[in-house]
Amino acid sequence: MAVGLRRCHRLLLDGGRVTLDLWFGDINELTRELDDSLNQQVDACFLTALPGEKSDMWTQDLFSAMARLARPGGTLATFTSAGFVRRGLQEAGFTMRKKQRLRRKREMLTGEMAQTLSFPARVPWFARSSSDAREAAIIGGGIASALLSLALLRRGWQVTLYCADEAPAQGASGNRQGALYPLLSQHDPALARFFPAAFTFARRMYDALPVMFDHNGAVLPSSAGMRKARIKSPRCWR
After folding, report:
1. 76 with 88: CB under 8 angstroms?
2. Distances from the Cα of 122 to the Cαs of 35, 63, 93, 217, in angstroms?
3. Do 137 and 106 lie in a common domain?
4. Residue 196 contacts residue 238 (beta carbons within 8 Å)
5. Does an H or E element contain 192, and which?
6. What number of H helices and E strands is found in the chain?
7. In what order do the strands lie in the sheet with 95-100?
8. Same-domain check for residues 144 and 89
């Protein structure tokens, strides 16, 4: 039975100039996973569902998460004009108003984050620096440092790579041939979330790069009972 991979799937379009994140799952669970690095980064939000269709979606937690993510001056719109939705978004910090739908007699809600709210980072590694400098120094010449450099360059950073060897990929990353596969774990929730999503992203990324890569599959012997159970378990692929 095929099991859909929940949470975030990132697609890089137009040569990496456009980043599309697709989130699959319950919206009130997923918004809690949008970490502090995304605070006040969203320009516009559009809610497509109606309260009568997905009544459990419209919670104050969702409205508060939208306020946390909205950039000052950011906008929102939704087809519904329900009073509890308008009041909930106002309580979260949005300035709300009703508008006529195009070619429809019914009303819809639009809003704006007209104020600058303060959302301190919940963990220290997401606290934003006051510096506007976009320069980074990376130490190491392996795959991890190369991919980190590529990610920063794609975001417009200036990167300096320091390597102890005369050329990159002289250590373990210099193997003539490697294999790409996800690490499956039933016991570590972080690994179970990270590796299946990272595997699908890596597959798409390597296809787009000018490198030789053959997706011919692989065989994992399942003679051991524990490995067989791990491969068959849906928990490893969520």
Report:
1. no
2. 9, 18, 19, 41
3. no
4. yes
5. helix 189-208
6. 6, 8
7. 42-47, 70-78, 107-112, 95-100
8. no
- Does residue 78 lie in a domain region? yes
Q: Which pLDDT belongs to residue 126?
A: 64
Domain that holds residue 163: 132-178
Say how far apart CA 40 and CA 111 lie, in whole Å: 15
CA distance 110 to 98: 6
Specify whether 100 is located in the same domain as 52: yes
**Torsion from C-alpha of 128, 132, 137, 143, nearest 10 degrees:** 60
Q: Are residues 108 and 52 in the same domain?
A: yes
Residue 26 shares a structural domain with residue 105: yes
What span, in angstroms and rounded, lies between the C-alpha atoms of 81 and 99? 9
- Tokens standing for 96? 């709300």
User: How many domains, the chain?
Assistant: 2
**Pairing mode of beta strands 135-139, 158-162:** parallel
pLDDT tens string, the chain, 238 residues long: the values are 344 667 788 888 887 788 888 888 888 888 888 888 888 889 999 988 777 777 788 899 999 999 999 999 999 999 888 889 999 999 999 999 988 776 666 788 999 998 888 777 777 766 666 667 889 999 998 888 998 998 899 888 999 999 988 888 888 776 777 777 787 777 777 787 788 888 888 888 888 877 777 777 766 666 666 666 666 666 655 5
- How far apart are alpha carbons 95 and 75 in whole angstroms? 9
**Ramachandran angles phi, psi of 225, nearest 5°:** -60, -40
Closest CA to 211 of 220, 203, 219: 203
